[in-house]
Design a protein that fits this description.
homodimer; 337 residues; Rossmann fold; 13 helices
Chain lengths: 337, 337
Amino acid sequence: MKSNIVLIGSGGVGTIAAYGLELGGKASVTAVVRSDYNVVVNKGYKIDSCDYGHVESFKPTNVVDSVEKAVEYGPFEYVLVTTKNLPDIFKVEDLVAPLVSETSTIVLLQNGVDIGADVIKRYPKNVVLSGVSMISSTNHNGFIHHEGKDSLKIGYFINENLSIESQKNASERFVSIYLNGKNECTYDEDVKYTRWRKLVYNATLNSICTLTGVDVGRLELFGGVDSMVRSAMREVLAIAKSDGVDLPEDIMDFMIRSDDGIYYSPSMLVDLRKGNYIESEVICGNAVRTAKRNNVSCPNLELIYNLLCVIQMKTKEAKGLVTVPKERPIPQNGECS
Amino acid sequence: MKSNIVLIGSGGVGTIAAYGLELGGKASVTAVVRSDYNVVVNKGYKIDSCDYGHVESFKPTNVVDSVEKAVEYGPFEYVLVTTKNLPDIFKVEDLVAPLVSETSTIVLLQNGVDIGADVIKRYPKNVVLSGVSMISSTNHNGFIHHEGKDSLKIGYFINENLSIESQKNASERFVSIYLNGKNECTYDEDVKYTRWRKLVYNATLNSICTLTGVDVGRLELFGGVDSMVRSAMREVLAIAKSDGVDLPEDIMDFMIRSDDGIYYSPSMLVDLRKGNYIESEVICGNAVRTAKRNNVSCPNLELIYNLLCVIQMKTKEAKGLVTVPKERPIPQNGECS
């Protein structure tokens, strides 16, 4: 029997996941599609993919426009989350709530570190998998442009209420379902390492490009890699170490060189340019909080994070989530009234 | 006999200075006017001023469109510079070169710290005055909107080749020429202190608003004053101290509260929004360099400065001062080829 999977987050990453899962024949996918719902229901996704070639029209088995409407197609073996992870805007554990049954495994295919704890706390009896994706794929109004091979690492966020065996089994079964002969997916014994490794890039190059408004190539040409990125990366390595993850020094240059040849705009910069929220909390905030817990000094990351927080508030104001009083309030006793 | 003064920099600050000087009757002003030249020659400046009321048309005694063309109206007793101070774009000491005679006093009415040294080095026999302006005045195409009383402090950048007396005399004479009964101008025994004091605001609130794209009011409402401004201010105080300037702790809250009631956008933010260069070198760069010379730790200011440097490079690219190669170069031996 096919695995019944619900997908929340139909961007470039999620849609390629849905396509690959259905192509492999081992899963049936219910996709929660919000902004592109009409396009997808009427015409399906159009896909140009380095792994799958040109696909004129792809429709997942079920397409719904809200999490609530997905419920009727459950229960789901896997609840696959590929949205941006924005805990300051919405909580993943709230988002998935209607879809998680006793036997569901939740899969977070998202950026950041320390993103499993709150989900495990809410669903202590469910396995929560940790997916770290290496893919370059974008979605513009239902047109998926997939340039970088889908290569996924899957492990689990350790839940001490559950047996290691059940968590490992859920991981390995997901890997076997995901693999379709054209993509890459492996079980990762130490996915926490893999998350911190990716953060070496995201907390530094991604953040600093976002703050300065330039791509990684310009950041290097304009001196910012030498003046800022390396010291911030060293802080990430120190925080990772305090969290039990020992990354090699040469990961820094590997990440600095990872976009060689292209003027690559990393994800938060792209989000900011589009007027969207940025994943500053899970990328920088969680790292800084880990540093504070473990008494690791990280002045650069802390300032980077605090700057990004103000920028996020600006986006909240623009989207109407925060209202700025017409008259500037004067703080009373140190609090803004 | 009237003092013969040449003014370079006809923005909101410079034009009010020119008007005030001519009004006082003790000076004749030759103004170097670049972008507004045609407007000013044909119609004069239109001024709305809290000090001087409405002025339908003001033309300085001489109006020229380049420094070179001002030469014929010399020699000048005072060479008054009210341009932005942008040493990464042009050097003040180069700019004033055609106008400085043996007897000229150079007056830098500009932001930043440590801006006198290079001018003194180039003109070791000339007095160089240091002017710190408190004014709120803008120029839009020859229309001057002057909201905050013109209050100027004048001292001198210490030049050890010259007698204290001659430097003090040049300062006091400038003050007496500048005063016209409607403005404020005082001789400042310790203008270095006054410069560092102003930097407590500019290196922190001004810079951080520029990096986050919000005014001072929003910065406070969005948490940035508490999360960033105070620690950066503490660094400015430490650097000032290492430079012999002992600022009181309560200057921090004074500066934080100095724009109370208004959503004020500080100068570098305004410059950046207009696509203009920002005074990051004299405001942040010189402070950070002083810190390095004196072994003062300032991780926040250093990162702020390095971020602003990349933003300045982006403006240089936009203005054609820097060209980014079509193909992203791969550094050879750590250098961008």
